[in-house]
């Protein structure tokens, strides 16, 4: 009986052990998994939202995606605000952002949450999240500010 109990204990420990590392992991000690903040695949959207869930942005890479092409073929950042009224500001790689109102749709918000005080960067865009809202700039210094109280493009 004691032998049976010992065998049962040994089998349960083996069953609960993590799998052995792959040969790649064993060789250099590093995981073959991509890091969490890896660059998106070509043609892939990237989305983030502010902690309240009221403001969110979508990055479209240069060349667009399989279902959406930007008007000028360049990268684009579109930021939406749900309340108090739904607005969208679209910022291209160059030039001032364009404020869009009365769109008749309110698709917002998805993606990772960008904590207050944190920054996000992709392609020519850099955004900073704060309790006042989100501010983003493009490669030539034009930008946007979107909050509950403000919707500005410059």
Explain what this protein looks like in three dimensions.
Helix content is 14%, strand content 32%. The protein is an alpha+beta fold and 154 residues long. The chain has one domain. Strands 5-4-3-2-1-6 form a six-stranded mixed sheet, with no helix packed on it.
Residue windows where pLDDT falls under 50 for at least 5 positions: 1-38
Major sheet: size, sense and barrel closure? 6 strands, mixed
Distance between the termini: 80 Å
* Averaged pLDDT: 79
Order of strands across the main sheet: 5-4-3-2-1-6
- Number of DSSP helices? 2
Percent strand equals 25-35%
- What is the total tally of β strands? 11
Taking Cα atoms only, what radius of gyration do you get, to the nearest Å?
23 Å
How many domains is the backbone divided into?
1
Order of helices and strands: HHEEEEEEEEEEE
Shape: globular
Percent range for helical residues?
10-25%
Structural class: alpha+beta
Q: Secondary-structure blueprint of this entry?
A:
Layout: H1 2-16, H2 23-28, E1 46-49, E2 55-60, E3 76-81, E4 87-92, E5 98-101, E6 112-113, E7 119-122, E8 125-130, E9 133-137, E10 143-146, E11 151-153
Summarize the structure.
With 154 residues, the chain is α+β, with helices and mostly antiparallel strands.
Notable characteristics:
single chain, alpha+beta, six-stranded mixed sheet, five-stranded antiparallel sheet, 2 helices, 14% helix, globular
């Amino acid at each position: 009986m004691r032998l049976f109990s010992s065998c049962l204990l040994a089998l349960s420990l083996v069953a609960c052990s993590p799998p052995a590392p792959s040969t790649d992991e064993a060789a250099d000690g590093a995981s073959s998994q991509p890091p969490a903040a890896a660059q998106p695949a070509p043609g892939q959207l990237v989305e983030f939202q502010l902690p309240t869930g009221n403001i969110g942005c979508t990055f479209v890479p240069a060349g667009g995606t399989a279902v959406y092409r930007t008007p000028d073929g360049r990268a684009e950042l579109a930021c939406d605000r749900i309340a108090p009224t739904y607005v969208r500001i679209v910022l291209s790689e160059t030039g001032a952002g364009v404020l869009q109102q009365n769109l008749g749709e309110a698709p917002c918000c998805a993606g990772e949450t960008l904590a207050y005080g944190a920054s996000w960067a992709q392609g020519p865009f850099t955004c900073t999240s704060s309790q006042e809202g989100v501010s983003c700039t493009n490669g030539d210094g034009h930008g946007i500010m979107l909050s509950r109280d403000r919707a500005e493009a410059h």
